[in-house]
């Protein structure tokens, strides 16, 4: 079974940007495109919103118009559409289950709205078992020009970032792009407060060689599977979110892993995914690894 690239649309400008990105990705990877819209019958006191059949017709017409624009640009692309009645989170996570990735549009920077934290998007990130890509309104093919890198964050042991690295290598291979693998690190608290420990660490060559080896070890099996992908390794001291954002300005795609955390007040995504979703200038892929 060939997994499709699935795009969730709702008629907004940002979802249309996500659909356009998903179509280009489907063409690059030689995969079909699936377009999904979730809707629920709603009434409104101030306007005539029509009955359920009328609303469904409006929705289907809008989705068909969005698909028409895509097929005009990519006439050879295989496209299917699904208009699903029900709440958005369940429909989108269900659609993601059999997809290579789910692509959603995202409103602007630094706002807790739209597909960002606290809304449909966060819930989808938490529940989806496949990668979810967020594309900002106004994204255009010009962001994918030659020279722009795929950036991926690596942390912990090799298995902790294996899924994110696999996704990033595949994206780089599909585009013929350079992959920049970033590992950020910080001093353990005991080192920061102990001059003697710092001296001994300096004499041993510091922690950076250890971090560099950890990154190289994590990349080694992917380098073997994707020998055509040029890789740049970057090890930098600092918070992972800040380091990734510092290189996202020249990236065409930023890839991060996520491990959802559930608590009494609801599910949360990690601070790195949270930060880059709010502030990165390029599309962001959030890849589950738990």
Automatic annotation (TrEMBL):
Domain UspA: residue ranges: 1-136, 150-288
UniProt record similarity statement: Belongs to the universal stress protein A family.
Name under which the protein is recorded: Nucleotide-binding universal stress protein, UspA family
Source organism per UniProt: Streptomyces prasinopilosus
């Amino acid at each position: 079974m060939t997994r499709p690239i699935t795009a969730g649309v709702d008629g907004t400008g940002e979802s249309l940007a996500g659909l356009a990105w998903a179509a280009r990705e489907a063409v690059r990877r030689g995969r079909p495109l699936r377009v999904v819209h979730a809707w629920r019958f709603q009434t409104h006191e101030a306007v005539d919103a029509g009955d359920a059949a009328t609303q469904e017709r409006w929705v289907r017409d809008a989705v068909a118009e969005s698909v028409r624009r895509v097929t005009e640009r990519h006439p050879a692309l295989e496209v299917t559409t699904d208009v699903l009645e029900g709440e958005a989170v369940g429909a989108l996570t269900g659609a993601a289950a059999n997809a290579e990735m789910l692509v959603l549009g995202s409103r602007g920077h630094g706002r807790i709205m739209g597909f960002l934290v606290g809304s449909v998007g966060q819930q989808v990130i938490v529940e989806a078992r496949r990668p979810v890509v967020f594309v900002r309104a106004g994204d255009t093919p010009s962001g994918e020009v030659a020279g722009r890198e795929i950036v991926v964050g690596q942390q912990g042991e090799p298995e902790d970032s294996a899924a994110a690295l696999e996704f990033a290598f595949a994206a780089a291979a599909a585009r013929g792009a350079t992959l920049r693998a970033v590992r950020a690190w910080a001093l353990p608290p005991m080192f920061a407060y102990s001059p003697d420990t710092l001296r001994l660490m300096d004499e041993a060559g510091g922690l950076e060689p250890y971090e560099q080896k950890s990154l190289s070890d994590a990349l080694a099996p992917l380098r073997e599977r994707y020998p055509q992908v040029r890789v740049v390794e970057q090890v930098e001291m600092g918070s992972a979110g800040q380091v990734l954002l510092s290189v996202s300005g020249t990236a065409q795609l930023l890839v991060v892993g996520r491990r959802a955390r559930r608590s009494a007040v609801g599910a949360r995504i990690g601070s790195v995914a949270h930060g880059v979703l709010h502030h990165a200038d390029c599309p962001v892929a959030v890849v589950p690894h738990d």
